[in-house]
Structure formats: C-alpha cells, structure tokens
Amino acid sequence: MKDTIAAAGERIERIQSRLASLDVEGILFFDLTNIRYLVGFMGSAGILFIGKDSVILTVDGRYTTQAGRETRGCEIIESSDNIRGISAKISDSPLRSLGFEASAISFEDYSKLKEKTNFATLKPLSDELNSLRIIKTKGEIDLLKGATSIAADALQKTVEIIGPGTTEKNIALDLEFQMRKGGGEKPSFDTIVASGPNSALPHARPQSRSIERGDFVIIDYGAVYEGYHSDETCTFAVGRVTEEQKKIYNIVKDAHDRALDAVKAGIPCKDVDEVARGAIERAGYGQYFSHGTGHGVGLDVHEAPKLSRGSTDYLEEGMVVTVEPGIYIPDAYGIRIEDMALVGKDGCEILTRTSKDLRIL
Amino acid sequence: MKDTIAAAGERIERIQSRLASLDVEGILFFDLTNIRYLVGFMGSAGILFIGKDSVILTVDGRYTTQAGRETRGCEIIESSDNIRGISAKISDSPLRSLGFEASAISFEDYSKLKEKTNFATLKPLSDELNSLRIIKTKGEIDLLKGATSIAADALQKTVEIIGPGTTEKNIALDLEFQMRKGGGEKPSFDTIVASGPNSALPHARPQSRSIERGDFVIIDYGAVYEGYHSDETCTFAVGRVTEEQKKIYNIVKDAHDRALDAVKAGIPCKDVDEVARGAIERAGYGQYFSHGTGHGVGLDVHEAPKLSRGSTDYLEEGMVVTVEPGIYIPDAYGIRIEDMALVGKDGCEILTRTSKDLRIL
C-alpha cells in the first residue's frame, strides 16, 4: 500500500475540504476499505474520524501496534469497544453535526452510536461518499494492472489442465494456486468455474462435476495485488462447439465489444448497459441476460459506479469498470465475457489481458 | 449443505414458534449466513422473510435458478432490488409488526426499508437472534470435525517446509494449497503466518520475511468444509528456543489448558476468559494479552458466544468455542495457542487435532 501512504495526506484533505459543503464538522468512517484508502490501516476492525483539524483512528488491542506502523498523520486510540472509544474521544471537543457512513454501519451500531453521541446531530451520508474512491490515480492503475497481469499469467497456465475429465473444483484450485504463486495476495472473490449446465447459473460455485466434450466453461476470477482487485470472465468451449453455441457466444461477444466501444468520459453509465442489453435483446435473448453490465473495481471488487439500467452515474476519466454481459439458458448453458476498462477522454484502455475470441480447448 | 436442507424445516419452525414471544408477525433476515442456515441458499445477496404461514426468499436475477435448486419449502421471488421486492410482496398481506435483523442491515438500507414498509412497525432484533446458530447439531459437529481434520492434515504437510529461509508468504500459500487439496472449500479467513518480531502483532498478514533460527512462528488458520469453519493457532519455535521464550510459551500454554478445563455447560463465558487472563496476569504478563479468550465457530468463523471479559453469555451443551490466549511483546515476539472445543455437560471435547506442546522445528 505504498500508494495509500503517499496519497494519505491528499485524501484526508479532500475529505476535510468537503466538510463545510456537507454541513458537518466531522465524519465517522466505518467501511474498512475506505479507512484503508484514507489512512492505510489494513486491520479487520476500526473506526476513523476525520474532523477539520483532527484525524483519529480507534482500534482494539489486536491492532494498536499494527495501526501505528501502517498509518501516518493519524492519532491512534485503543478501545475494546470502538464505538464507545471514538464517541468518548470526540466528545472532548463536542461537535454539533457529525456525518457518518450510512451504508457501512449496521442499524444496531447506529443505535449505539446515537446514544453515545447525543451531543451531536447525526447526519447519514451515502451517495455523498460513494464516489470517494471512484477516480483512480496513476499509482492505483499500476496496481490494478499488476493484478490483471497476475490473473492473466495464472489463467494461461491453468488453461493447460482444462479438458474432459478435469473437475470444476480442480480448475478453481489450480487457478488460485497459480495466482498466489505469481504474487497475488488472494483471489478477488470465490473463483467461479461453471461447466455444462452449471454455466447457466451466473454465480455458481465450483462443483465436483467433470468437464465434458461440448461444454462451455465459464471462469470468472481475479487476483488481489497490494489490495487492488482484478475481475475478468472467460468462457471457453471444450472439444467442440455447435453452431447454436457459436451463435450465442458471438452475440455475447458482440454485446461486450459494443459496450466497450461505448465506454468513454462523459457517457451515462446506463447507456453502456443499454448498448450491451440492446444488442442481446435485438438478437432475441434479452430475457436470458439477468444482471447488470458492469461495476467499478479497485480496493473492492465491486465498487462505484454501477453500469446498469437504473444507474445515475456518469463515466469519468480515471474510473475503472467491468463490462460483462452474459446469456444464461436454464438447464442448458451460459456464456459471460468480462473485461476491465480504464475510462479515458476519448475511449477506454482494456486492462485485462486474455483474448475474448471464442477458444476451443 | 445436506445438513441444512435436512434441518431447514425444523429451523424455520423454531423461528415461527418464537414470533409471538418476540411480539412480531414476521422477521426479515439480511445476514446471508443465517439465511443459508435457515433455508440453504448460498448466494451472495438476498433477503429472507419468515412469517407465521409463509417463507419467502427474494433474490436478484443472478440467483433465481440457484435459489430454486438450493432451498426447500421456500417461495422464491426475483427482484433487481431486494428491499423493494420483499416489501412489495409482504404488503400483499400487511403485517402490523415486523422484526428485522438489526446487526445485519445497514442504516442506509434500514432507512429504505422503513419507507417501503410504512404499513408496519419495524422492530429491531439483535440479541434475540444472536443465539440462532449457537447450539450445534450432531450433523453440524460432524462438519466441524471434517474442517478440523482437513486443517490438521494440511498443517502436518506444511510443517515440513518451515525452517530458516522459508518466507511467511510461502508457508501461508502452502498451507492453503494443502487444505484445498485435502477437500477444504477455502481458508476460514486470511491465513496468519507471523514470524519473529511480526509475531508480536496478533493479526499480522504474511510478509516476505524469511524465517530465522530462534523465531517463533504463529500460524492461525482454518479450513471451510461444507460451509463450516475450523479455527486453530499453533506457535512453533524454529531451530532453538531461549529459556525466556520457553517460559512465556508455557505461561500461554498453561492459560490455554486451564481455560479448556473450565469449559463446560452452565459456566459463564466471562469466567473462561477470567481463567486464562488470570493465569497470564499472575505470571506478570497481563498487559500483553490484548484480546478476548475466544468465540463461537460454525458457519461463520466468528459467531456467538463471546468468551471475553464483558460477555454475558453462558456456555451450553452443543456450543463450539475457541480458546486462544496469547502474549505479545512488542518488537520482540508473540505466542498464541488456540483450540476449538465442543461444550459438553461435564467438560469439553477438543475438536482441533494438532498438539499444543512446544515444538521446535
């Protein structure tokens, strides 16, 4: 997380400069990914307060030493109960108005926070903070490229073992092992390997099922590198492919290509979804494309913006998004094709590195 | 999840039989682990409603087919917005009083739910549901034993590569690979391998640091088997051990053994913590034991009850808990020793399988 430490000062100032317009005197952060982004702390529990003149991180005893090592420009306090600890600390110089990350605190914790901070008005912040990490810096893009490289190199090795008789579980295991060997911290999410009829489930878990000739195999996977996630889906054919399968593959591929062509700064995210969805609908398979077209990727594998029908976001230079249309025919087979793209002024740069042309293994 | 499917009917009835005493006509579940426990659904998004006469699961289009396959006795509805979908569905036969899992819904989603269910009074349920999965059935205990076996077999293999020159990262990678090869679905959590001074951080992430003679190496790890987690910590010495190291190891071991001896039905959880903490305090190292003594384990790696100073839980037959005292001397080294124990009427059965006597590799 060299990138975070270098950028921490700038990121905190960015929050501080927005306090007035959000009409709060400080903000409590509960989302651990945002906390990592803002101050560099990588533990599994903690609350961050950013006020006009103070930055305070509260952690429990497991993380006191670690927080001191990982963060800069941040006062660390230890408490066995983070909500109580941070509330007591900020009550030293009470605020009238305190913002909080409404999507990252449970209703239960909110109720407790409210009781402990009765000196302040609590103001839920949601959309206002959603875009916190949405624009990637040069350093972050390099880390995302590191992640996509590790993923591509691993898949190239794993492809060698895919064929009739290999199980979905073994493919997933090999791929995750190759990513770790290649420098990945861990998989971006539970690797999806779905073959034959299982591929008709968009989010299937790998089973003991053995691959058969004539199957499609969907592999949706990613590597984490220095905290940054890759996310990519390849659908391979095994042994042979029918005309029908080839036709449907190419419909998805066409939708994917058109959507990528549409990605550039200034475009509404829902338009990219509409391009992919329109292509699949015109081909007569609209009912089988049951999810959104894409999402942002970074320190989380799913983050803002959303590329879906209802999205109100606009693409901006420096966003990194997935484009991943699919067609899933229940009890038969499914196809999904996914790349990650860096949004530029006049188009996009594809960050994932495996070709999406139909490949028969 | 054969166990869940078999038990689903009984588990749902258990909830339904409690509705009256909780003074609600139905409960909304947001915790995906609880949803898996109650109806068998294993997807990454969904909301479950249990009413007197109805059980309804709402999922988005990615999971409709999967939910149909995985669940029984459960009406599945599809919605691109689960809160909107379930609210509309239950408004068909409006309830006056609707309970919800307060610890598993964000404040943001709660606000939305409140708006969409204005026909009902929302009643936050927290402690009332905390104990939902706290007592393990015979079937669940078998799955937990499956997980601890996979973990033990893997560690036995990985121990072979631990020695001067091996890096923390390589040990973690090998251990995770061995667990997967042995039938584990995935690691229970990010494997901790912390050597030398890093072992003084209770929750360190594996680094590129090479093991040196004279190091302690803390390995805190677990395997997931059919959804059930193991959790175990071994601290090994490498090459040689000083008298001081041996002394401190034995203090932790003694605290661990005494705490395990205290585990039986009817005992307050805080008493088990007190037994471990007292032993470490009496030896003069109380300030270096910076976390609780243990926690429940099951479908989540951390679940109820808590074995800590402030805990108000009591041990009951069929609970499975960890006992994991530690001493961490900043910038020098740390030791943690952890086993999982099944609470019985007159004592406990240790489910983890690796000896905790000091071992020099």
Q: Specify the structural class of chain A.
A: alpha+beta
What order do the SSEs of chain A take from the amino end to the carboxyl end, as H and E? HHEHEEHEHEHEHHHEEEEEHHEEEEEEE
Overall tally of structural domains of chain A: 2
Taking the alpha carbons of the first and last residues of chain A, their distance comes to: 38 Å
Biggest sheet of chain A, strands in spatial order? 4-3-2-1-5-6
Assign an overall shape of chain A. Answer: elongated
Report the portion of residues of chain A in β strands: 15-25%
Biggest β-sheet of chain A: count, sense, barrel?
6 strands, mixed
- CATH C-level label of the largest domain in chain A: Alpha Beta
Describe this structure in words.
The structure is a homodimer of 361-residue chains. Chain A has 361 residues and is an alpha+beta fold. Chain A has two domains: 2-130, Creatinase/prolidase N-terminal domain (Creatine Amidinohydrolase, Chain A, domain 1), CATH 3.40.350.10; 138-350, Creatine Amidinohydrolase. Helices cover 35% and strands 21% of the residues of chain A. Chain A contains eleven helices and 18 strands. The first copy, chain A, has helices at residues 2-16, 19-22, 32-39, 64-70, 82-90, 107-116, 127-130, 138-158, 168-181, 243-262, 269-282, and strands at residues 26-29, 47-51, 55-59, 75-78, 97-101, 121-125, 192-195, 216-221, 224-225, 228-229, 232-237, 294-296, 303-307, 320-323, 326-329, 333-336, 339-343, 348-350. A six-stranded mixed β-sheet of chain A has the order 4-3-2-1-5-6, sandwiched between helices. In chain A, a hairpin with a 3-residue loop joins strand 2 (47-51) and strand 3. In chain A, helix 1 (2-16) packs across helix 3 and helix 8 packs across helix 9 (168-181). The longest helix of chain A is centred in the middle third of the chain and has 21 residues, at 138-158. The A-B interface holds A 42-44, 60-66, 80, 100, 102-111, 124, 126, 173, 176-177, 180-181, 186, 190, 200-205, 290-291, 309-310, 328, 330 and B 42-44, 60-66, 80, 100, 102-111, 124, 126, 173, 176-177, 180-181, 186, 190, 200-205, 290-291, 309-310, 328, 330.
